[in-house]
């Protein structure tokens, strides 16, 4: 209240960006919008007819995209659940979107938990969305002003939002590393997405926030080019065997592409059939 100089009872008409500002916000978050579209559509098919509204926001709480039934448009527009509206804590106090962004965690805000009295009919559940660097880049929110929403129903909506946000994060991560091999790390927590992007030489190009925490990686490690096998602590009995292992793996890949035909594999490698046979014998490739 003191920090943002807001009062619960003050007039709180929704705040909307000017058209030019809104277009600029969408341009900046074009990747987020593109990678979220399918998830917004999918969730809306499940909850749209139940009086729910979906909002995708940027890191400043600006609603970039929305999904809602046409019959509910007037109510949601008046409440500010509309494209271009600003839902930061600095603008409207405690609310699902602003609080999730500020705290960088999933939150659920029931009716009178909202700061402004004009929002006390709303129930909101929101999950932050992180980019490929682990930074919060936006949020996904489901809101409803229906009186008959019970705890069970809303817990299901909360899980749907979290799952969708996680899938969007995966989309953003893959988008950031288009040519990389994506590895999923085992995780005991279903709410986290532990992914590594690895190049053809086994060097880690990127890691999600959960993967960074699990493997104790930071920007310095990634900039230095740490091998995935080192980060994953894959123990080797013979440290000097790495070159032989790499050569063996290369031969196996070529033989696979040649369907096991040694003559064809030798041609692909640009060496003689006899040379390939010697290498295969030396490296125990059968």
From TrEMBL:
DNA binding HTH domain segment(s): 243-283
Coiled coil: none
GO function term, MF aspect, one: sequence-specific DNA binding
Domain GAF: 48-168
One Pfam family in the UniProt entry: GAF
Descriptive protein name: Putative Fis family transcriptional regulator
UniProt xrefs under InterPro entries: GAF, GAF-like_dom_sf, Homeodomain-like_sf, HTH_Fis
